[in-house]
Structure formats: C-alpha cells, structure tokens
User: Fold this.
Amino acid sequence: METPKILYEDNHLLVAVKPAGVLSQSDSTGDPDMLTLLKAYLVDKYRKPGEAYLGLLHRLDRPVQGVMAFAKTSKCASRISEQIRNRTVKKKYRAIVYGICGEKKGQIKSYLDKDSNTNLVTVYATKEEAPESAKESFLEYEVLGQGRISGVPVSLLVIDLHTGRSHQIRSQLASIGHPIVGDRKYGKGPNRFAGDILLESYHLELLHPVSKEKLVFELPLSSEEPWKQFGNHE
Assistant:
C-alpha cells in the first residue's frame, strides 16, 4: 500500500491523512494501519536501522478518513497528549446524514456505553438510565447544506466534538434519527449506500510541542459525489 499523504513533518511531529478503510494502529486482522505504514516511510526516508519511533496520539475509526497527528519523539508525545487531556487540541468533522435537520445548529448530550464483545455503543439519554460504565458525551453540529443521494434527502453537517468517545459521532447522530450515510454499524438509513461512510475528520488544530506555534490542518471538501453537491455551501 502507498504511503499516506503527508501534510506536515519536522523533527518532532508528523501529520498525515488516514484513508477510509485503513486502521489507526495494527490489530489481529493484520490489515494495513497508519502507524505501521508511517514507520516504514520514516525508515525508508531516513535510512534508519531497525524500527523508527512513532507515537500514536489519537485514533480514527477504521471506515473514517481524516487528519491524524503522530509524535516522532517521546517528548512530543507527552506534550501533545497533555494538550488532548486539556482539550486544547481541536478536531472538527464533516458528515452527510440522512434526513433534513430541523434546526440550523444543535447539540447532543448523552451517555455512551460500549460493549467490547460486540464493538457496539449504546446511547442513553440520561445518566439515570445509563449503567455506571457509560461515559458522558457531548458534541455540537451545524447544518451547512441539504441535498439528495439516490433521491433520498440528506444534510451536510460540521461537527465539533467536545468529548472523544469511541463511535461517538456515529452513535449519537443515529440516536437523534440522522444516521450517517454509509454507516454499516449504526446507519439504518432509507437506502443502501454502497460507498464508504460519509464521515471525515477534516480539521485538526494544535500547538507545536516545542515552538508552541498554533498549527491548523484542514482538508478541502471533496470534489467527488456525493460531497460535490455541497460545494457551494462552504
């Protein structure tokens, strides 16, 4: 597999685009993953003996494409991990969901509980009905446009994720009746969309671990359908 697209690289930090279908890190399947692919890139580029160091700072679900940051040193890993804990790292997502959202802006607050055996998240509206293992989860969204896929009404959302829970965006949007198009796990939509899930992490903002400079990485809206129909809304 080809090396993922590199957006930024210096002695401390590496930022790349994870394609849909590629794992963030290796698992029992042995399928391609970002960490292994980028380590191989570093070994080849710098002719390193043995394995290159690369720290995984955050993850994206396998079917989701988007911007990912990796640490080239342990100092970088520690400092950016601290930014993530302090929520100074900003991530935004785009999604095309089924249905027409009634409000221009909205938010979802609920409690998510993940079953490690089924790899499925259950959404609870209140803390009282949720098990103790459930975690409070919060996101905000804005509707950028409306369109159609195979005649079915859809909406383009930008999502600001305030808590980074596993499957959070997918499960929470499905819980309010707007599953993401192409989501095989949570998306019981009105038609069978054959492509990848229409969710991407398009915006990443953080402080450089050494210089403290603010770094912003953003992917443009795809010029391919079904994203293309929303091109005039950004």
